[in-house]
Amino acid sequence: MKVWIDMSNSPHPLLFAPIARRLEELGHEVGVTARDNAQTVELTLERWPAATIIGEPSPKSRAQKARVMAKRVRALGQWARSFRPDVALSHNSYGQIVAARMLGLRVVTAMDYEGQPANHLAFRLAHLILMPEALRNSRVRRQGASASRTTFYPGFKEEIYLGDFEPDPGVLVSLGVQPDVHPLVVVRTPPSRAVYHQFGNPLFGRVMETLGKDLNVHVVALPRHVEQRIAIEALGLPNVVVPEHAVDSRSLIYQADLVVGAGGTMTREAALMGVPTYSVFAGEQPAVDRQLERAAHLQRLQSADEFASVEPRSTPPRAIADLRARATMLVEIFIKATVSGAHHSARAGCEA
Predict the structure, then answer these.
(1) What is the rounded distance in angstroms from the CA atom of residue 260 to the CA atom of residue 204?
(2) Residue 283: which of 297, 267, 271 has the closest Cα?
(3) Which end of the chain has fewer CB atoms at under 10 Å, N or C?
(4) How far apart are CA 96 and CA 303, in angstroms?
(5) In terms of Cα–Cα distance, which of 69, 107, 71, 75 is closest to 91?
(6) pLDDT digits (tens, 9 = 90+) for 47-78
(7) Is the pLDDT of residue 148 over 60?
């Protein structure tokens, strides 16, 4: 069986690495494409050097986004005609989903945010949709995720790959930061180019200013886009480091005393690792975040003054063995969905 996986955003290479590896262990062939968006290409090529890069960085306006997406759909279709996959797998890669359906391929997709407007497109075109249990009672049904085509899995997508790494104690040194510095705060910038985030985030700016005033705190800021890097560096904060390349964020978070996330994925990674975590996401709060908040793993920040004093954390992060056990279980759910989707396609072809 041939499986086509498309990486359209930075978390996707990490998410699909253990899934692709398991598919190959089972004897399936995996083909990978990636979109030039944030750190997606760099993270993809680290894991799949032969991956094909298709698509330009996402522009800000919706009209420009549509033109770039149409161009990518055409290019993805050309690639797929050559690879001849049995099933297309992604985490709501809209370009791949459209291209795959135009070619008559089976589509398996996953998603974990009900506030994404493009869900209406992806859910209606996909043959099978995978979502965290936290979204069961959200509005995803109205977006096209019918009961017959949706599988809700226990847990969070981040758990799939949090067990797929070995903490690197040298990650800080690679950034020019002294090892074992405390307190260490990791900050993730807002998804400023995303369709669901077409507004500013003044709270994030105030957080950066507050952290910058406390010279006892060491801050690593992880921007998504070039303009965010420029804006943070322009603040001239002496205690803030901005990496020039993609870093092993899981190892970095594992050493942190506090994580402040203005987006979703990295914020949940930290919360699920057992690291004290604040969310300053300015959009509609995701159902998965509300579940983490109810479980006291995540706190929604209302004011930068709430952490005027940052202290070293008092407890260690979650054990790697526990993270790996969760990952193994969830990977198998994705494998089952992918293989069943491809088998359905084969049966349909025979019946035709």
Answers:
(1) 9
(2) 267
(3) C
(4) 39
(5) 107
(6) 999 999 999 877 767 788 789 899 999 999 99
(7) yes
- Give which of 349, 249, 260 is closest to 299, Cα–Cα: 260
In single-letter form, the type of residue at position 51 comes to A
Within 10 A of 305 (CB to CB), how many other CB atoms are there?
9
pLDDT digits (tens, 9 = 90+) for 236-252: 999 999 998 888 899 99
Q: Which residue has the tokens 């993805």?
A: 76
Most confident of 178-182, 264-268, 344-348: 264-268
Rounded Cα distance between 234 and 237, Å, is 8
Rounded CA separation 107/128 (Å):
7
Task: Give the percent of the chain with pLDDT over 90.
Answer: 72
CA dist 53 and 42 (Å) reads 10
Going from the C-alpha of 256 to that of each of 135, 156, 283, the distances in angstroms are: 29, 21, 25
Distance CA 257, CA 252 (A): 10
Closest CA to 158 of 348, 331, 352, 316: 331
